[in-house]
Design brief:
Blueprint: E1 23-24, E2 46-50, E3 65-69, E4 71-80, E5 84-85, E6 88-90, E7 96-99, E8 108-117, E9 122-130, E10 137-138, E11 140-143, E12 149-150, E13 156-160, H1 167-171, E14 174-179, E15 184-190, E16 196-202, E17 211-217, E18 228-229, E19 232-239, E20 243-248, E21 253-258, E22 261-267, E23 278-283, E24 286-294, E25 307-316, E26 323-326, E27 344-346, H2 348-355, E28 363-367, E29 370-372, H3 386-391
Parallel strand pairs: 10-18, 12-19, 20-28, 23-29, 26-27
Antiparallel strand pairs: 1-4, 2-3, 3-7, 4-5, 4-8, 6-7, 8-9, 11-13, 13-16, 14-17, 15-16, 17-19, 20-21, 21-22, 23-28, 24-25, 25-26
Length: 396
Amino acid sequence: MRQRLPAQLGRRTAPPLALASAAAVLLAACSSGGGADGGDKGGPPAIVVHPEAGSGNVPVGQKVTVRARGGSLTSVEVVSPGPGRLSGIWSEDRSVWTSTTPLAPGATYTVRANGKADGGSALDKTASFTTEAPKNGFVGEYHPDKGMTVGIAMPVSITFNKPIRDKAAVERKLQVTASPAVQGAWSWMKDRSGKDRIDYRPERYWQPGTRVTLRMDLAGVNAGGGVYGTQDRVVNFLIGDAVTSTVNVTTKTMTVARNGRTLRTLKVSSGKKGYETWNGTMVVLGKVPTIRMDSSTVRIFGPEAYNLGAVKWDVQLTTSGTYVHAAPWNAEKFGVVNGSHGCIGMSTSDAEWFYGRVDLGDPVTVVHSVDTVAANNGYGDWNVAWTAWKKGSALN
């Protein structure tokens, strides 16, 4: 049976987040030697930055100025991880630098400046400030979560709560690195919810033991239409053992292997005619020990309708409602005939055994069935050829 899980395990919504973590940016006023603020003129030689260090809710219309009081500037850098580096102009005597790039909302900027006092001593300054929150912000729900150990087929997946018009601008601020290194690519799609989603996967499954890091430098990034990001994230996760399962709908069996060694071959019953189990590779989305399966949630009515309480050992494979689960009511069909409404059923003892050996990100591949599972139906990413997958990048 295909049934929708009320809350997918292993998924976590990223809360609207605090503003981009800092990188450096420098700016100074564009007058000839005079500071932007007369109050900065007195005192010992120093580099003075406006907005002041630690300022919050800085209006995006404000310019950044960096001024060498009693000296001159040699370098100025003002940077935020999301919107990037600010441009600026120098005063004639290089004592003041003033930004010319507008500030982005909801971003943290870091200013780093160096200079020289009139007496020859070195001057330096590092300061950070945060701009006012965007009136219209976006966030991404990302998976997997920080610190998790996941299966070899787990993509990095981000679903956005607002339409992303400038997909290239957003994609530029997403980065995945791995140790050992892999060749991978981002690809955009519409999630089944209708929201914009981007997934990252290698050309082939991750190797067990790979350490993966996702960086999201989205605070202050303009996604188009005045919608700005509010997230900075660094998410580290680990790839666990290679637990792979293959369901052959012709022989009505499931073969489960770990790191290339077959553990067991189980008798199963998959979808009957008209309700065939999806063909291709699906990825474990989560699991629960007991669930109610109501056919109305997957639009099955009439003589084929069902409403089953306390279905045991449920492993979810698609958002459309495909599960591996115990189906004792079909005991005479396991290994003999396909008789489900699309799920993969097996004995209660076999289902409990399978439940205990798979986790988020493990691949389950169905062969000799019909209708290959779509990329956006759970994590059907692996059913897209590598060349076609790379074409889904906005930066291709």
